[in-house]
Amino acid sequence: MQNSAINVFLEGKNFLRLLEGLLITSKIAFISIFLGTILGILIGLSRTTKLKIVLFINRLFLELFRIVPLLVWLYIFYFGVTTALNIDLSGEIVSIIVFTLWGAAEMGDIVRGALQSLPKHQIESGKALGLNTLELYRYILVPQAVRRMVPGTINLATRMIKTTSLVVLIGVTDLVKVGQQIIETSRFQYPTAAFWVYAMIFILYFIICYPLSQISKKLERKWNS
Amino acid sequence: MITINKTNNPLLIEVKELKKNFDDKEILKGLNLSLHKGEVLVILGPSGCGKSTFLRCLNGLEKIQGGQIIFKTKNLTDKNTNWQEVREQIGMVFQNYELFPHMTVIDNILLGPLKVQKRDRSEALAQAEHLLERVGLLDRKNDYPRQLSGGQKQRIAIVRALCMNPEVMLFDEVTASLDPEMVREVLDVILNLAKEGMTMVIVTHEMSFAKSVADRIVFMDEGRICEISDPKEFFTNPKTERAKHFLNIFQY
Amino acid sequence: MNLNWAFIVESLPLYKKAMWLTLKLGFLGTAISLLIGLICSIVLYLKIKGLKSIVLAYIELSRNTPLLVQVFFLYFGLPKVGIKWSETACAIIGLSFLGGSYMTEAFRSGLEAVSRSQIESGLSIGLSRLQLIRYVILPQAFSVSLPSLGANCIFLLKETSVLGAISILDVMNVAKDLIGMYYKTNEALILLVVSYLLMILPLSFLLSWLERKVRYAEFGN
User: Residues of B numbered 192-221 whose beta carbons fall under 8 angstroms of chain C's beta carbons: which are they?
Assistant: First the structure.
């Protein structure tokens, strides 16, 4: 019955619903990437400070996300924080909060790395040419820092998109959840739908992430030469 | 060194019209040379003349675009040449010694004999220790390369190549990376090898060494062999203009 | 926050059992990933025709898709076409599939870091290509690859957190059950975080120590 099972995508609005699920996934991902980047840049800049306490908090923040799996964080916010603060947050909002924090932590590290890797003599020669601080940043430091940040940022974005698949486990109707719903409703008509649906979801993620990783590679190659 | 004419000895390597290109540039433009058993050839020439490249062609590290290399009647430029086998018989020592950093001295030396030639361990070990003693480094056999000086590493590299029992040894500027104090100890080893009758092709900048070790001097310039002569003659009365110019550079 | 310590103590055995399962799966997944990574990286390094494209395709497919979808496909999708594997098998296969491509990249950077002159030195004593890889290149590549290999191990161990979704009784499921059945959210979550700290921090220190030891052996400092 496999041949006809692939037709599950033609049935009703199934494919459209999959794309809707994809939209929710993308929404969470992109909002988080956007907010996370802004927050991350601020964090990254703050790591240039000499205040030990600020550096310590930043480091702790990053390590917490590096050691504890993201799904655990989703659980903590979805089950723990909501119970503790006695509020009711949807899975979607929890996802955006957690992903934004994760994005900010990683982005902060990327920014710090980019700033630290800038050759110091650039700053000196810029000053020697008579540039003031603002001009220094605008013409010399920022363009070079951005260049070093882009591959890491794209890599982070790709990872975040892949990880949004987890939000199905805290009840969000994302791409994976829609897929499960389709499988459930097609249980009688297309009993082998699960094979095709999950294969399709696999392909959809690939279609989004692969071009991103290729762009990153091309940019890296272009800017490294 | 008394110049014995060794060109009547059996012919080991014959090079005919050897041509090599790099991208589209001609590096070697048709070299002709013969190497006899027991001979020591020293190749001299200005930077970029192709002498190192020529040496590397002899053991297959560089591909050839034209001409022939005949080693003991076998044509090495044939596509089916098993270079692994050839390299057991033509050994090479490099400018940067290139000992394997993750192995001790003795393991470096025994790798070829044990894994490539599949020799008996005790026999290979005996030869290795004998050779180490002759270069004065037997007490260092269990050290790692990073614990040795440049001159010591180069002497070990020579021992490593010798332990394969090659018929020909190639030396590519082996003292160029060494501090002046260490150059002598390495050159002494090579001189001893020459006295024992090892067939060698040496690329070097060390002029007085070249004079004392060579049976014949091969002078190259811009990818061609300009002059081949007896060392005494070459240094006192070079035949070609280019050789004269080259030697003038070295007289301060 | 008032914690029910009695509950915490009672739940410890559950978490302990789940941690062992997680570690076991993580260990097996990592081991197989390392094997896959080693083979694939050598294929790419030797540029073996035919196999090279397959390996490259494999890397792109596994790196650009989430583990959750991969294991869902294995556990829910494949049975519909007759291939039915246990949840443990699906977990290990999923981890190895994903991990293999990460390990390939890690080994590859190590292999390419070994200098051309080391290779020529090995060739000049008559080593064959495979002998060259085994005795000269791999040992030197290892110290370069080790940090990435270690980071990948930790990554795979963290990724085991999604396996609860295919009925693996890991710490995530234990926490979820305790929250769902006893409403002891804080206790369950604290134990959950502690479990991961206990599993990952020692591994992280072990890997750092190993990196330092390998670097010392190579460079003596």
Answer: none
